[in-house]
Design brief:
Number of helices: 11
Distance between the termini: 11 Å
Largest sheet: 5 strands, antiparallel
Shape: globular
CATH architecture of the largest domain: 3-Layer(aba) Sandwich
Structural class: alpha+beta
Number of strands: 16
Helix content: 25-40%
Radius of gyration: 28 Å
């Protein structure tokens, strides 16, 4: 028994010395902190090498926002019903926040029922669920449903339009001024191909459930009494189409925000002021075909995938696993697959306590000296700080087990 007590004292002294007097080690793989060089929707050389007849066009990669093609992207034009991309974005945000559910019943005001253009002939005596409202807006571009939703969410269409303009400003849509939520021609109601791409990307990236509605070709509401057929022909005819929204008036001519995904690559092509509806769809197809023919998406890991372990100072365990905070995929030109390098940067002096999800480093994917993608590395578990209490408790357990 005496020998066991002596062994216990020796172990206790060694552990106390290690924990209390340990130096804080530094674990850094690289000091390269090059700025993010991802090309955004606003900085690309414009041309019209595809010989488009439309007044403006843009093609972007959805995940990064990188511009692959641009033609008059900042020209202020009338968006027509492509306006509803912003209306849909605010509706989806309301769903995510819990303000409404898909089963919420939406009434119809006199104002909503009086809308012209595309509609489902809402009546002031009826209500529709948000689910049916979304179907009607996405599939047949129903102006009456858009106004009814706007009034329900903001109290009036005017207040909802203020929300739209506030959101546009937050997204950097500097070419945009909304005057209504539906897109019927109105003086001063303008946007650009660039800004349509921005709000389309925001909708698709952060509210992917919208594609459950934008990919519907045919459906119905009112117990099958009202048939819906999508105004976006690409949903039926283009492989991988995910939406997104058509729009046309006699002044705006023919507009389209078209989205599609193939083999992990998601693209958004915007056409504005096409002379005819046929040209609108043909040139949107040309944009998307150009993107899929020339670019590919290379995956380097999925969200939650463990990248490495790093040392933890003064923790109850000596190391913690780091994982990707988000999926990591890089847009590359076909044929350039071998030119991507990785640069891992770990925070200095990682100390306990640590909470799962704490950002402890980052990983950069580089083409030459340019950073084309950056992802945070986060802790996968909680790690408590080593305290006298923890040490004493552990030692007691060890001593108790030794004496059994």
């Amino acid at each position: 028994m005496k020998n066991k007590i002596i062994i216990f004292c020796i172990i206790f002294t060694c552990i106390i010395s290690t924990v209390v007097f340990a130096t804080d080690s530094i674990y850094v793989w690289s000091n390269n902190t090059s700025s993010n060089a991802i090309q955004t929707v606003s900085d690309v050389k414009e041309d019209n090498s595809l010989n488009l007849e439309s007044g403006a066009a843009i093609l972007i990669e959805q995940t990064t926002g990188k511009v692959l093609y641009a033609h008059n992207i900042h020209e202020q034009l009338r968006p027509a019903s492509v306006t509803k991309v912003m209306s849909l974005l605010l509706i989806m945000e309301a769903l995510d926040s819990g303000k409404i559910t898909l089963d919420t019943q939406i009434p119809c005001s006199e104002n909503a029922s009086s809308m012209g253009g595309s509609q489902i002939w809402l009546d002031t005596t009826e209500t529709l669920t948000v689910h049916d409202m979304l179907k009607s807006i996405c599939v047949v571009s129903a102006n009456d449903c858009t106004v009814a939703m706007a009034e329900y969410l903001a109290g009036s269409e005017e207040s909802f339009v203020q929300m739209m303009n506030t959101k546009a400003k937050q997204l950097g849509m500097n070419d945009t001024c909304f005057k209504n939520c539906h897109g019927i021609d109105e003086d001063g109601h303008v946007t650009s191909a660039n800004d349509i791409a921005l709000m389309s990307r925001e909708l698709l990236l952060n509210h992917p459930d919208i594609t459950k509605y934008t990919t519907i070709w045919m459906d119905s509401i009112r117990d099958g009494k009202s048939e819906l057929v999508n105004t976006n022909k690409l949903v039926r005819n283009y492989k991988g189409a995910t939406g997104l929204k058509t729009g046309s008036t006699s002044v705006a001519l023919y507009n389209l925000s078209a989205s599609a995904t193939r083999d992990g690559l998601s693209l958004i092509g915007v056409i504005m002021k096409a002379p005819t509806t046929k040209i609108r769809f043909n040139e949107a197809t040309k944009l998307l075909d150009y993107g899929f023919a020339n670019y590919t998406s290379k995956s380097f890991g999925n969200k939650g995938e463990i990248i490495q372990q790093v040392d933890v100072n003064k923790g109850v365990v000596p190391q913690v696993s780091l994982a990707l905070e988000e999926d990591a995929s890089v847009l590359i030109k076909k044929g350039d697959n071998g030119n991507i390098t990785q640069n891992t940067i770990i925070n200095e002096n990682i100390m306990a306590p640590i909470q799962a999800g704490d950002i402890l480093g980052k990983i950069q994917y580089m083409s030459g000296d340019a950073v084309i993608l950056e992802r945070n590395l986060v802790a996968t578990e909680n790690i408590d700080k080593n305290t006298i209490w923890n040490i004493t408790t552990n030692l007691y357990l060890k001593w108790f087990n030794m004496c059994r």
